[in-house]
Amino acid sequence: MSRGRSLGLMPPDWLARNLRPGRARSSRPAMMRSAVAMSVPLAAGFALGMPGYGALASIGAVYGVLCDTADAYRLRVITIAVPQFVGAIGIVIGSLVRDQGWTAVAVITGVALVSGMISTVGAVSSVSALLLLLNTIIAAGLPLPGPWWAAPALITGGGLLVLALALLAWPLRAGVPERSSVAAAYRTAAALLAACGDAARYETARLDVTEALNHAYDAVLTHRARHHGRSNELTRLLARLNALTPILEAAPAVHLAGRPLPPEAAETLRRLADAFAAGGPSGPPPVLPVLPPPATETERAVDRALRYAAEVVAAPDADPSGVEDRLLGSPVPPGPRTARAVRGAVLSAHSWRYGLRLALSIGIAQALVSVVPLPRSYWVALTVTFVLKPDFGSVFSRALLRALGTVAGVVISAAVLAAVPPGWWTVLVVFALALLIPVLTPRGYAYQTAVITPIILVLSDILNHQGFSLLVPRLVDSLIGCVVVLIVGYLLWPESWRTRVGDRLAGAVSDTAAYVDSAFRPGTDPAARARMRRRLYRDLSTVRAEFQRALTEPTTVGRRAAAWWPLVVAVERIVDATTAARVHVRDGAPPPDPAEIRQVSLQLRELADSVRRTDTPAPVRTHLTGPPDSVLEPVRQEVAAARAITGPADRPLVQGR
Predict the structure, then answer these.
(1) Which of 54, 202, 374, 624 lies most in the core, judged by the most C-beta atoms within 10 Å?
(2) Distance between CA atoms of 394 and 614, rounded to whole angstroms?
(3) Which of 73-82, 242-251, 334-343, 489-498 has the lowest average pLDDT?
(4) Is 627 in the same domain as 598?
């Protein structure tokens, strides 16, 4: 490999990371929903002699498939339906300014500003804003068949067809996605217990647990917030999730002790997961393995936690008054408070910056195609819309992957248009390609673009009957759009190409200092402490995601991000060591002196301040004093190691953000 790289035959690391496909399991129901939702409207259009109408509904189905990202059925109603209705507004706006010259440029630029601002509120608003701008651009640049109301109705109907297909199993599978997410959290916790003592496996397992818990709490708490009154099933699920907290608190202590747990510990969690994933307390209680007598203090903590989890899973009901929402609290139900929060997010400085950035890029793209005659020029602005979504990943990476995916998609489209005659055979082609969207979308943006491009081109050919003449303009316009994004939406905005790992890591270090304070403070609410620890791990997973995003940027940005990696790992080890120390205190070890706690907390806050600085780090004292037999001794060692990373010898680390 090194020889190939020396000869220039191997791509640079950042490019290889961009092209490396992600891991994902294929969902057969999702594949069939995608294929049926896109092919059935097209077939109906051919059967009724109105293929253009069928093509519009199939385009709407493409949107619906891309919005179908939630597991819980109630969430799907929101994540699929809301963007479709917002997108319909965009079609109406675009139709009103079609062929209006600079008026269309001004209106689309204004829609881009609004779209960019509302996209910062959350995931649903982000996709809704995307469809609003996307459909405005399409309707302004492409003559759509039928009266003014036909295109909005057909495209929205195609998206809602995906929702209808997704909800078909709701009467039979109500609650299954939530139960499955909780069962997955138990299985990843089992893998964590099995990995205790093995540094490499433990690190991977801990990340998997964090991701699974985030997903499970999001699914259960969101469902619970929208459920009128108390639901026994949701209360049981939340109690089972919370029952993992003592296990996850004991795991770091076991791992730091370096003594592997007996395999029966992990097997207990797996059997508990299998029991309630299959239907909850209605069946017989699971047969659990016999746990060997615990030999150490940490093993006793795990033993108690496992027995408690088994009791919670076996209980037919959970006491609602004893169930705490341990993540961040239940999501706030719709109301004035939510409206104020949304209004604050939309009008924040961040939303204004992104809105202006998107509006400037779209405005320049629209002005460019108004001056330079390009066939089907709306593809330029469409490309800008798809690529310039920072919440979807690195803008630089998306521009690169969009270009590569478009090239691959155009090649596939050429083969389809050459081999498949217009008519009913097109339905089979769309069916086959639609099957691949749920498979390739998790693999990466280039793979998604490569499969969606031929579908859109085939459907566009039905609307315009231009055949091969669509291919080259589609490719050229997409490449122009990528260039506009890279120059106007990326290089001119330093915040977009400077890694944010350091800033976010500084916040996580400050939160870690607060966690150290609360972990040993008498009278601290255990539920509040659990929420703090969960929030910390979630924040650190966000830092890791930002780190991975930065590694896909060009070489300089990637190197700056890589410089922060040792400190990311060090902070995670501090959190683990603090949790382990708390377990030891709970099991009878002498609590640390308050002065010792303040010293460690102060060191962490100084570390956070030095991470925030971009020029000179704060003075570093890497030698923390304290009793060598204190439970905080491992925490002090980890803090000293973290502070050494940002010390004077490592000054480029703090500067290279």
Answers:
(1) 54
(2) 23
(3) 334-343
(4) yes
* Cα 637 to Cα 620: distance, rounded to the nearest angstrom: 14
Which two tokens mark 21? 């496909």
Q: 121 falls in which pLDDT band (50, 70, 90)?
A: confident
pLDDT over threshold 70, residue 616: no
With 0-12 / 13-18 / 19 or more C-beta atoms within 10 angstroms meaning exposed / middle / buried, residue 302 is buried
For 217-240, what is each residue's pLDDT tens digit? Answer: 877 766 544 443 445 677 777 888
Q: Is 5 part of a structural domain of the chain?
A: no
Q: What is the pLDDT of residue 42?
A: 94
Out of 293, 322, 351, pick the residue that ends a domain: 322
Question: What are the angstrom distances between the C-alpha of 442 and each of 20, 134, 217, 336, 584?
Answer: 12, 22, 22, 36, 41
Domain containing 288: what range?
A: 175-322
* The two structure tokens encoding residue 306: 């496992």
Last residue of a domain, one of 258, 288, 322: 322
d(Cα 115, Cα 354) in Å, to the nearest integer? 9
| 508 and 649 inside one domain | yes
| 464 and 556 in a common domain | no
Ranges 55-69, 87-101, 143-157, 501-515: which has the least confidence: 501-515
Distance CA(140)–CA(366), nearest Å, equals 11
- The answer to whether the CB of 607 falls within 8 A of the CB of 570 is no
Asked if residue 357 lies in contact with residue 489, where contact means CB atoms within 8 angstroms, the answer is yes
- DSSP per position, 390-414: GGGS-HHHHHHHHHHHHHHHHHHHH
HSE-up of residue 634 (Cα within 13 Å, Cβ side): 17
pLDDT tens digits for 440-470? 888 888 888 888 989 988 888 888 777 677 7
